[in-house]
Design goal:
This protein is an alpha/beta fold. Helix content is 20%, strand content 24%. The protein contains eight helices and 16 strands. The chain binds zinc ion (2 copies). One zinc ion binds next to helix 3.
Length: 303
């Protein structure tokens, strides 16, 4: 797909400057709830992260922008409790120097009401204007407690989401794909037609989601668990992955992602128990052989 080129207004010299407008994606956090390492966990991955053998990961959040380089409004997909330090790790999300208080965060999309996806909203309370949050009515209801806490600070301006594309400003649009107990978001650049799918919490592979996986240039997908019983290895009373609304990789999403013609296929929201995190593991090798990437904090994609 060719890069979108939009023409800017004449500059002072009277020349027409061509400006690139692209979809920029930045994985702020690639871990599931708890992060890597998780404070109370001594599984092989958490120990490896504590001893510097594998890179630590913060909790699931993604930044996306459809603006040209000089505008830079960013939308977040989920707001993790690690958000303040994720912003400090990404210069483009930090305040501009032309005023003392500002932010390039223009809004937050919530895929569900999980603590690891919503707690970061509370940490944006210093903002003056209300926070713009896109979510289903169910998510909004489940987050009534955050709503009432933030009402004493900046407040939340809730925005409806729908199954049809709606414009976000510029040439970028988005739509929601409803799933059992969560949603996925698909973003599209109307100029180039480039699309990116974000589905960090998937309990079931519905037909609509499968279609979107096959029709997107970039697919960022739920890689929480390798197998259904994975968590019970560290906590015997733990529920299965499917019961926790996460389709396991091995006998759930792997085949669909492997076969998708998407240019980039990336597992994110990876739980610290997942064997794909360990270099040299057969599970990681299987994923990589299939042309699927494993997200890490700081991963950038431009399309
Ligand atoms: Zn989560
Ligand atoms: Zn662990």
């Amino acid at each position: 797909m060719s890069a979108p080129v939009t023409l800017a207004r004449s500059d002072r010299t009277g020349l027409i400057t061509a400006k690139l407008r692209l979809i920029r994606i930045h994985i702020l956090g690639s871990a599931a709830g708890g992060g890597l390492p998780q404070w109370n966990c001594a599984c092989a991955n958490c120990v490896a992260a504590r001893t510097g053998k594998i890179a630590p990961q913060t909790q699931s959040s993604i930044a996306i922008s459809g603006d040209s380089e000089d505008v830079q409004r960013w939308f977040l997909i989920n707001a993790s409790p690690d958000l303040p330090r994720q912003i400090e790790s990404m210069p483009r999300l930090q305040p501009r120097h032309d005023s003392l208080r500002n932010s390039s965060v223009a809004g937050v999309f919530l895929t569900n009401a999980d603590i690891d996806h919503a707690l970061g909203l509370l940490l944006l309370r210093e903002q003056e204007k209300p926070l713009v949050v896109y979510a289903t009515d169910e998510t909004r209801k489940a987050l009534a407690w955050i709503d009432s806490v933030l009402a004493r600070f900046c407040g939340i301006e809730w925005r409806k989401i729908s199954a049809d594309f709606q414009l976000l400003g510029g040439s970028i649009g988005f739509r929601a794909i409803e799933l059992p107990r969560s949603v996925a978001f698909q973003f599209r650049d109307d100029t180039s037609g480039a699309t990116a799918l974000f589905a960090p919490g998937v309990g079931e592979l519905t037909d609509k989601l499968r279609d979107a996986v096959n029709a997107s240039d970039v697919v960022v997908f739920d890689g929480t668990f390798w197998s259904d019983g994975e968590l019970s290895l560290v906590r015997p009373s733990a529920r299965g992955a499917r019961e926790m609304n996460h389709l396991p990789i091995s006998d759930g999403s792997f085949e669909v992602l492997r076969q998708s013609p998407a240019r980039r296929k990336i597992y994110t929201h990876i739980n610290n128990t997942n064997p794909i995190l360990m270099p040299g593991s057969p599970e990681r090798a299987q994923v990589e052989r299939a042309g699927i990437e494993i997200a890490r904090d700081g991963l950038e994609i431009v399309l």
